[in-house]
Specification:
Elements (H helix, E strand, L loop, with lengths): L2 H29 L4 H4 L3 H14 L3 E5 L10 E5 L2 E8 L7 H13 L4 E6 L5 H10 L1 E4 L1 H12 L1
Parallel strand pairs: 3-4, 4-5
Antiparallel strand pairs: 1-2, 2-3
Helix pairs in contact: 4-5
Length: 153
Amino acid sequence: MSTYTNYYTIIIGIVILLLFFVAIWLLRKAKHTLPDELDLMEGHDFEYFCAELLARNGFQEVEVTKASGDYGIDILAQKDGVTYAIQCKCYSDPVGVKAVQEAYAGRDYYDRMVGAVLTNQYFTTPAVEAAKKLKILLWDRGYLEAMMEMEED
């Protein structure tokens, strides 16, 4: 074999190896992104999806509240002796302060220990600041993806 043939063999081997790693990276990335169907869900469908996801991730007594008169809370649940009042938001834009305020009011109305907002998106800076002050948990798209991944394991 000539020297050029050896170089070409090495280069082709490196390219194939790089393509292999890129393919693995793309498959993992695709696994960690939420399906488009989730982003297109109607509000009530998203609430039931989240309730089922919470139940599969160790939450108990998971209950979707009635559609109207829920005082801003969509799901009541408990885990490890801690009770939760959860506001769900299926939005196409970042979630603002109003959802945090609803979770705060609903947590007290339902006499729950923890209030949370669960969304398929992320939160605005004012929402994050309000949540810190009001002690409301913010469960964003990353948290939702992590819960979906945990149930696959």
